Input
Amino acid sequence: MAAVAGRFLSSEAETAAAASGGVPDAPSVVVQVVATGATGRFYLVAENAGKDTFMHPEGQAVVLRGGGLVGTRGFGNDMMGGAVPPLSSILRDGARHRRVIEVLDGQDQITTWVFDCETARKGDEVLSALRQEFESTVFEETCTNDAFTFSNRYWRGRGGQVLQSLELASPALGYVAIVRI
Amino acid sequence: MNRLNTSIVALLAGVSVAQAEDWRPTYSLFGEVGLIEMPTADMAPDAEVAATIGGFSSQQRTTFTFQVTPRLSGSFRYSHIDDFWLPTLDEIYDRSFDLRYQLVEEGDVVPAIAVGLRDFIGTGLYTSEYIVATKGIGEDLRVTGGIGWGRLGTRDGFGNPFGLDVRPPNDFGVGGTLATDVLFRGDAAFFGGVEWQVNEDWGVKLEYSSDAYVDETSVGAIDQRSPVNVGVTYTPRPGYQLSASYLYGSEIAIGATIVLDPTTGAAPSGLESAPIPVAVRPGGALAAQSWDRSILPDTAIRDALTAVLAQEGVQVLGLELSDRRLRIRYENTRYRAEAQAAGRIARILTHATPWSIETFVLEPVQAGIPLASITLRRSDIEALENEPGAAQAIHDRAVIAAASGSEGLVPTENTRPSFGWGIAPYMELTIFDGDQPVRGDLGVELSARYEIRPNLVMEGAIRKRLIGNRDEIGSISPSTLPPVRRNAPYYAAEGDPGIEYLTLAWYGHPGANIYSRVTAGYLERMFGGVSTELLWKPVDSNLALGAELNYVMQRDYDMMLGFQDYDVVTGHLSAYYAFDNGFHAQVDLGRYLAGDWGATFSLDREFANGWRVGAYVTLTDVSYEDFGEGSFDKGIRVTVPFDWAFGQPSRREIETNLSSLTRDGGARLNVDGRLYDVVRDGHFFEYDDSWGRFWR
Output
């Protein structure tokens, strides 16, 4: 069955309104569910041992650890738990690592997927946003297990910070884009 | 932002997580996995539920099929047959049951082999047996060949291969009994066919039918010019199938199937808001042994928790606070899985309790009865949040036991009486009754509920019909039994408006592992009186035992306050057993509403997400002749949880009984709130019992 993504803020205007009424000073990321196009700004609401929880005013959440996606909530086909080394250590050509994604199946049981991943440098790209241009280096992380293969992408800025990424949340939800600018 | 998105979306073209499509079985006009009219040895995916309407000019069949286990499927069918071949009848509506078992799974060389019974406890109109083999050739072609008996042995039949040449004629009688004396007897005949999956959406079927439609042909209801049927199937999405075929050189047939997969819902992890993140205590706080109650008094904690948990649909009933431990008794009104409610409560407790409290004891309550006790360490909640394996880990570390007593608990303000009411539309269907297959009403229901205490509840409902035809009373068949259910149409006709129920229910927990219920008033639409029940169910036991004793009087047809002069003492001893593989058995022994003695046997397959599909039979000392049509009470029932269908959290579910023949024998009182269903949800002892939702 198709992923049923949560409806959350769909326009920049709504995002701005939520931001002005909510927690304007908190660090935030913009998250888009690629399959549905649903987009919204998520604010940092909690930190627990290096895991940062960003929430949307309407209730969805993403959890990042070392910059990488390790959890989602409220999207219907969530990543219930995840493990990946900090992005700073995997974003180099030829880096190999292991990634774990946990999802909840229709029987309320946790399914654990373990992937072997390898990162490749894909060249440079200039991102345009907020009337600025950002130079970036693009990395592709390709992860494989018996069942399937997927590829996450990361745009790393000149200062070493990840500007945006495209990461698989779960097989049913698909990719989410996380913009950190 | 938009420009960034463009660059993101552009690169998705090369990325895919789709997996290859497996062979998807299709359903026949008999509503089972098969060719057009002939069966195959194929099985649907485990647990698949399919509802099919199919047929041609003179026969239409509505079939419900359930893949009971990976190798066993069962079907229940309701057919309309025109130009019926008995001179006294123009048409009939007929029920039938099928079973199919796959003896051999398909291998590289070996075909799948299955044995099946069609209409083995109906009136026998479709009664047939078969052994069939099916083999895939390549990925898109499947070839089937089989041998059939009964109806499936009527074309070019040959001598019985087992030497059982004599097949006794169908003994119609009142129908509904197991036809063991005809199985695999008499002439046999070959049938077969092929199914070709042309592409993802379209398929083609070709078959040779061994059903000669002997009786139908004799009265001219069908003109069979050829044994060959050909058809196409269209499956644009996994959820439904359409088919069209040309049968026997003379008939056009169409079919439509809706396929449901109970094992996975619209949004397995739910669309509800993310739970509040865990508040982690700073390192130095872990050593705290108490807190300053002059700054943070107990009442402030109690009030804050009550208010915050109300936002989660959790009603706090009582709280016990000590320096290092908090015990909370609550009723979860929102989440189907108590484990999910427990997880969300634990997260909130990390925000709303002093740092010195290290132990959380959670006591879920339903109907005012504390059902279990889950002891969690706060440091585990802090350490496991968002970690892989967190669901299993928290289950392993939690201590789950029976609820403890009320000593030390301070009740919250919420335990004062509460009143609620509502108006909602209702729809009611009477199926398989009398000479009309379906009667229906649409109307409004006014209901009210007054909670005097959490375990003492008065509630009632009145219904008013707006449109419908259930006020027409069809034929009520004669019987020697008291009309305890047969006269249901009079209630539908005269009880408008009528009091559906008006009861006072009191729940108790009189001893360890013992639960009690007393319900008095207008218990259901046809009976009022007193219903009492005791249940023994240890928190970690697969077995439960119950006893129910009721004294009831039959209500007046106008469904107001009066009674007729029929009264009866009815009750049962019940045993419930939850097998580890998800099957669930129940046996009830006792006296039924008509004063008959007997037993009900039920077997349900239950899914952790709340789906249930099951069947039951009731056998009592009423003879088949006295029982009337169907011979004894039997049926299929399906329960679908709301959150499976809509993805939003809910404790509601839809329950459907698929063969409710309203007869008097083996009829049970319909009292609401029987203990086993109330208690068992709170006994989520095993990790399988939805602990995967703890962190959701």
